[in-house]
Amino acid sequence: QVQLVHSGPEVKKPGASVTLTCKASGYNFTNYGITWVRQAPGHGPEWMGWVTAYNGNTRCSQKFHDRIVLTTDASTNTAYMELRNLTSDDTAIYYCSRPEEYGAYFDFWGQGVPVTVSS
Amino acid sequence: EIVLTQSPGTLCLSPGDSATLSCRASQSVRSSYLAWYQQRPGQPPRLLIYATSHRATDIPARFSGSGSGTDFTLTINRLEPEDFAVYYCQQYGNAPLYSFGQGTKLEIK
After folding, report:
1. A53-97 pLDDT, tens per residue?
2. Residue A63, min C-alpha distance to chain B (Å)
3. A61/B96 CB distance under 8 A
4. In this complex, is the C-beta atom of A35 within 8 Å of any C-beta atom belonging to chain B?
């Protein structure tokens, strides 16, 4: 069965960077992309970016384009998201998800990883 | 930039009732590109409906979706206790590439 497994919770100081991992299993990793979505407390989900697993092409929300880096490692079926220059507004639960074949919606999600930014 | 507005913000109903949740887009959304998710506390969103009206795998028939253009609806018939959760609509294609509504919380009366 398809599984997306995150790394553990993160606590960072303002100005720092965080790198989150998402290990995929149960499907051909390079046949799909991986998207990153975050959800601040009490808010709806917010799309951050997409990475194509087979060639590393990315597309990111304008809101994050200057401080987000998305990569994949096909040898380990793992996706990575680095978010730089953190502020308290980046405190949220971060999810990786797998878009369906045509990319219109997300049929599998990781369990989510909480990131807390606090001085 | 497209905005999805969900209403009501909170809906208080009893098990056995029917629920009608609305999602209105600030620009037209292709029917193929509108989805609904359910989120229970402490869990990631779960895909319920895709392409406006198609139920995802293992989703009961009491969930249905409809709509076109800028107005979309999720209907839940004969509410079960496990249906009380937050529901989000999501669009694909208009900038930003994906966006979600702010959610409708379905509460037990």
Report:
1. 989 999 999 999 899 999 999 999 999 999 999 999 999 999 999
2. 9
3. yes
4. yes
